[in-house]
Protein 1
Amino acid sequence: MASPIYLGVVGVGGVGTAFLNQIARLPNAPQLVLLARSSQTLLAPTPAYSPAIPAGDWATASAGPSLTKKGALPAEEIATYLAGVPGRAILVDNTSDLNLARAYPLFLKKGISVVTPNKKGFSDDLSLWKDIFSSATQGNALVYHESTVGAGLPVLSTLKDLVATGDEVTRIEGVFSGTLSFLFNTFAPASSSSDAQWSAVVAQAKELGYTEPDPRDDLNGMDVARKLTILARLAGLEVSRPDSFPIESLIPTELASLPSSADGISEFMSRLPEFDGQMADVKATAEKQGKVVRYVGSIDIAAQSVKVGLQYFDKDSAIAGLKGSDNIISFYTKRYGANPLIVQGAGAGSDVTAMGVLGDLVKVIQRLQ
Amino acid sequence: MASPIYLGVVGVGGVGTAFLNQIARLPNAPQLVLLARSSQTLLAPTPAYSPAIPAGDWATASAGPSLTKKGALPAEEIATYLAGVPGRAILVDNTSDLNLARAYPLFLKKGISVVTPNKKGFSDDLSLWKDIFSSATQGNALVYHESTVGAGLPVLSTLKDLVATGDEVTRIEGVFSGTLSFLFNTFAPASSSSDAQWSAVVAQAKELGYTEPDPRDDLNGMDVARKLTILARLAGLEVSRPDSFPIESLIPTELASLPSSADGISEFMSRLPEFDGQMADVKATAEKQGKVVRYVGSIDIAAQSVKVGLQYFDKDSAIAGLKGSDNIISFYTKRYGANPLIVQGAGAGSDVTAMGVLGDLVKVIQRLQ
């Protein structure tokens, strides 16, 4: 007889809401007994951990009398609550909170499995990475985080399969940011010509909601660097920090120190055209070689090198031909030879990110049962 | 305490040998207690099921006195032997034998999980497909068959994840045969021109070992049709048989009835040039539209249609840009929108096929423990 499974979910932002809507339609979904957001925590009353929280309709249920309501709970209290369920517990962290990620070892040691799209914990200090996985072993719990790279695309599962079956991964290369993919596919398309200025393309992406509220959070390359850190570690490289390797920032030095306030962002956007000449030069240099420029991350396992920045690609290459805001990830391995194993598609967005989380959850449930 | 796991393997051909070499290097591999090939079956002696067979060195061990040796065993006897292990058992079928596949329900009902790259059982009568999966439920056993489509590429796992998380798959399209990929990438390359005759390209592929011994076994489209049958069924279509939908054969009608003997194959190859004009016409028609011709399989879920045959593609499309003998599989879904989720890479070859089998085996072990 399978042990019953109980679920605690933190975060009800874009991905969190999409996840709750998806799990509400999942047949035989585990009981949702905890739902935490910044202002409030909903709990199925102890000691029975019943009734459960309706995933698709938690807001209505939170107004009724049947659930326990508390304010924001520290991670320790969430862990204690979940450790008490009469079965196995899984924490789904749909936030991007480093502090919650730092508490994963605490959950895992108590036997609570973790499923999350939160990059922070897996791309911070190497010591946290090691602590997370040794705690999982210690607590006989599982950690799945497919959506930390490429959202719902099968990127980490593919890399893990390659490694687990003894293939030798030699190089990983790709476009890992939907935002930067859109910017360069629009600024320097491979199959047509464009005379759009760089700053205009950034402004367009911002208006379409493709960038972070402060576009510098995309242009600084740190999001890509965090994803590369995770991939490199899974491939066996001991990357100490996400800023311990070369990262080419696309923020002009002169604009880097503007504050991240609304005024600062506004000044950044209005002064960005001053630097259009620099990006136009980069594009022209690529053109002269019959190539296009793209913002990529690459990992060379043998050379133990990780880097993030601009590179030129042949116009008929898969990276140059990318459309919209798609990601592409190429795995070069001994068994696959000269032509890499490629995964491509939307690598951002609430629905596909939540799908990656739910896919992980299904696998964790299968393994715990 | 995890239940010990025991392994029976059938087949020591190209994929079987690659699999045995790979599992020999796998840490904590399960005990290999049965190894069957057409002429002989090696068994760990009962009742202890010990000593186990050394996966990487079974040939030497088979000459020694410690293992039980029998002739070819019927599937029933293999199932009875594996059902007796003091733990959980997994059958790995590395053959392409339909008769062994017909016995999967027997294994599964006895609680023996099945891992295989053998397409036959999953692409034959729909009744066998249903029998396999209902038997698995009945016996509380698992069935994994990633390598039946695209070898080690994450094709079936991706489709299963899309379906399990409630995405709506609308269309699946791709190049599913390494042989046909090579033939068309060489005959009608997208980024350069070629004046090679069709028959010469087929002869070249045969010489390189890229085709079956009788190239008509590739050109008749049945291998692609079987893969499409599996994908369509996983996507929810009840395909009755692999020949229950339109399959465009590339074998000229006049040569279809030549015997499959060495003489027949030789006559086929020598008469194929008579039909080069037909394929040249197809290529020219595509050229006139600025396109290239490719041999693809496609599934339209809403229209419940499956088809296999020649289609024209824009030269800058991912399918047209395929290299070597790579496969490409595009999943169009509601969540992914206009740009599909794409998986691409080598879809044939002993090493990558065996890797897909081993990857499945690792997942089955994780779930059984």
Protein 2
Amino acid sequence: GTAAADEATTKGNLEIKSDDGNYSASLGGRIHFDTYLFDSDLEDPISTTDFRRARITLKGNIYDWSYVLEQDFTGGDTLSGYRDVYLAHEFLNGEIRIGQFKPFRSMAEMTSSNELTMLERPFSSSTGLYDGHQFQQGIGWTGVQDCYTLGFMAFNLRDAGTPRNEGVGAAGRLAWAPVNTDDLTLHLGTSVSFENNNRNSSDLVAEADYAGRRGPSQLMALTPGNLGGDATTAALELAGSYGPVYLQAEYTVGDFEGNYYLSEEDFEDEFGAPAPFYCDPDLGCFIDNQTVRTWYIQGSWMLTGEHKAYSKKRGAFSSAKPSGDGLWGGAWELTFRYDTMENANISDLEASSVTFGLNFYANRNVRFMLNYIIGDDDFTGDGTDQLGLRAQIGW
Amino acid sequence: GTAAADEATTKGNLEIKSDDGNYSASLGGRIHFDTYLFDSDLEDPISTTDFRRARITLKGNIYDWSYVLEQDFTGGDTLSGYRDVYLAHEFLNGEIRIGQFKPFRSMAEMTSSNELTMLERPFSSSTGLYDGHQFQQGIGWTGVQDCYTLGFMAFNLRDAGTPRNEGVGAAGRLAWAPVNTDDLTLHLGTSVSFENNNRNSSDLVAEADYAGRRGPSQLMALTPGNLGGDATTAALELAGSYGPVYLQAEYTVGDFEGNYYLSEEDFEDEFGAPAPFYCDPDLGCFIDNQTVRTWYIQGSWMLTGEHKAYSKKRGAFSSAKPSGDGLWGGAWELTFRYDTMENANISDLEASSVTFGLNFYANRNVRFMLNYIIGDDDFTGDGTDQLGLRAQIGW
Amino acid sequence: GTAAADEATTKGNLEIKSDDGNYSASLGGRIHFDTYLFDSDLEDPISTTDFRRARITLKGNIYDWSYVLEQDFTGGDTLSGYRDVYLAHEFLNGEIRIGQFKPFRSMAEMTSSNELTMLERPFSSSTGLYDGHQFQQGIGWTGVQDCYTLGFMAFNLRDAGTPRNEGVGAAGRLAWAPVNTDDLTLHLGTSVSFENNNRNSSDLVAEADYAGRRGPSQLMALTPGNLGGDATTAALELAGSYGPVYLQAEYTVGDFEGNYYLSEEDFEDEFGAPAPFYCDPDLGCFIDNQTVRTWYIQGSWMLTGEHKAYSKKRGAFSSAKPSGDGLWGGAWELTFRYDTMENANISDLEASSVTFGLNFYANRNVRFMLNYIIGDDDFTGDGTDQLGLRAQIGW
């Protein structure tokens, strides 16, 4: 019966590969289950439990073509649940992708959600600066050459869950790892992104969720969808790991096209506090082009001595693999981040988060994460904090 | 090619296990397709066809951890479609679960939807007394010791599809099978449940769907979500099987905290008939703490002689396995249930169902079920009946 | 470890079969990713990218029973995402199906979405004449006898995503392939369909999307859901292939029960132009029974010489299998269609599409399709055109 069988394997997933390597398929998934407890201040969010991710991932290859079809059931509707959904073709030491995937920008964004150091990505990702634009539809290429990781994408300004529109964008990223040994990695990177609204586009928005997920949001900048405005960003990345220690920093500047008026009421509704500048009684508050700056530094120390590996394919760090020598047979990691975002054109429009964390890795697939996030919104004066806990399994 | 292959098997599902037993994964599913025909009375529900369940189930283990990720596409939105979604760790002859699963209460609830004797569970389950609270998010343990099956869970008052809120609850169940041989099983059980509303909680509600699914509902008790009230229940279970005969009964008392007023109009809207007690012209109808009582007895006779097996893991009965000797090569079963629920504080607030049924098991995976449900709502006087038919396959 | 293993195989999918053939299961899927660019006229649709299909398909068999559970994540909600969802039993050289599947009518409808010659099906399918009624819930049989393909279905007028209602319908189709060799196929076919609205039924509607998907729609006929009206259709099919050339035509007449009034405003809202006949100032525009006629002819020429295979199971043509000798190692196909639909009772209520296309088949699973659609709506005078592009992978 097994004479003609292809090879079936499991590491918690289902995987079958043909003997000749021409075909393969796998079904994996992930569950991230969170508990959020807020220490409220001016804002008073609801403390609760929440599935952060519950995702199935189908992958496969057919000769030199491949596919990814990923659905996250936390999306609510299945269109919002699309994650990576594309077909790809091998090309120049990399692959051309067609469909929905992440534009190549922000080292934090390139990091898999299974491999995050903290519960959430910093503001320089689609959690903040590229709010709601984590996945876009289009065509791109990504590949690795020597110690360089490159990625380019041209896209329609939508994912499967957002309105059909004629906005377009493009993003590219270059990562360089001049040193990358078993014990030591040094990473430098840069990316640029350009987005142009057009018919039926949604607003381009930068937001700071300064007290963790499901906590309060501070709007940082807004380019209306119906006025054809642009948002442009440029970023620098610096990161490295040495033995059990790891550090990562990004600095990004964004320019959000403005040149519109908001009524004083609308301004307060959107930004959470009255305009700190003169508003014309007839025309309202003038919003000029907005410069947004965000940077973070994060790091960790593997208490059990493991080393965080670097993924050349992603140009980003993965998680350390537990040696199994720590308490309860797993690995332990202390983590820290300082993250801040400001609008340089509106006085005091700035928010920041300080996060301390502890991660326990039961094995390569299962982890628990604890974060204490000290939130600070200079614009509204809110100082809500969050204690966040995650139980995670990926397979 | 197959030298390194793990073991792949199918019983209609996909399953792969690693040679060393450290890893496994499977993909199963179920389709339950129903037809409902109503004999209307005061109520006149729409007769139609309906998918009761269309579900995929991913399961796997990674060393002493395991996961379940189950999605029912009848949910409409994917958050409502979450069923069992948790990670688990072996612990004390059982497992600790973290995520979404069923609180341990009600023998009928513990029975798999693939193994039901009737089309629907009785009122003592989330079909009635725990309306909308079949799955909750939290942490718990379940295990088997000798002839005892135990389960405990502490939970947030939500599942993935209901609003984020700060309500909490806890439930525990103990089942005892002092006799459990190939031919004879005797089961006794008890469970308690406590639920406490808090910020943003939905109402705690008991309802009787006395004429089957998609038929009319009679509200039995309501503890408003925004007043921080409690609902507490205690249940007794008695069941057994001997040869082809099986009997099961549960008796549950629930206390739903009240102490609020409804206007006469609202009372009639909610309960379907005018208040049968004095309502204050200014304040309305006073709803004090409500005692709800529900009990059922159900049984079946396998006409083809098979014996219903008892699952120690669940502390509940499974289906009989068809011997293949019956008409059309399958097994045949006659079924019966009497089910009733009442509010002891509001006169005549009582509903009951008498159900007669016939099941045909084509094989272990495929069955057809026919139910005739005679519904009776004492409060409104409605006597709608339902003829329900199910075609079911599980794999 | 592999001693007891069933057979695992992949052609981009996951598949396991038991050694004795009693069990099997597979997990496949498809991604169709489209780009639409409109040359607008009176109508001005949004040019954008869109996932046309992103679908997972579970199939399996358990002895002489089988199942299909298919979910398309483009549905938005999971009920709208149901495609084939049924259990089936081998019967008379075919199978009885119970659940949701396509009523047997229209050769174009019977063609798999992975095998379409053009981006969209012609008007004689659920893309037009049976608008929104591609899948229905019920029971049916389909099978092959000699050179005949037959299918019958009795159904409730709903799929999983449409309202529960008491409407019913039935459809049947007979296809005959008197000649069917490796190089030459001749196909004749006929089908009839009857649908009867009842309590809670949605309107029965015929529409012409004459400028491709996401373009403008011209309403052709409407039988209101709440009046209990009927829609009846009868169709003739003629098709054939010879070497690299293929031709297919269908002619369908539909009768949509009317006998109702629309206000002049409602008429213009629904049909996009003022009523071209006298409307009573008090009663409005009388809509009598409506006769709808639609026909198309489509064809293709495989530039690389392959032959389109005929599927006896479907009674419809499949795609040609690329020989690998063409440019870029694939197959190339030139395509053409003329498609038209008219309401014989309302003057000038007619729309048509002329489509030219080019398909590139990279391999059996991956293709790219280009269509230029020249749309023409005689009723409104609109002449919007569409350039459509699809990247497709099925596994």
